Amino acid sequence: MNLHALRIFIKVAELNSVTKAADALSISQPAVTIQIRNLEKETGLKLIETAGRGIKLTKEGEFLVERAESLFDMEKDIETKLLQIKNGELQELRIASTYFPANFLLPVWLAKFKTDFPFVHVNLYSGNSNQVVEHLLHYKSDIAFIVKEQWDHPDLQIKHLMDIDFWFIVPQGHKYDGQEVPLSDLMMEPFLFREKGSSTRDILFSLCKIHSVLPPKIGLQFHGLNESIRSVVAGYGTMLAPALAVKDYLERGEIGRVMVKGIEIKRPVYMCTRKNEKDFTRNLTSFLHYVKKT
Question: What pTM did the predictor assign?
Answer without folding.
Answer: 0.61
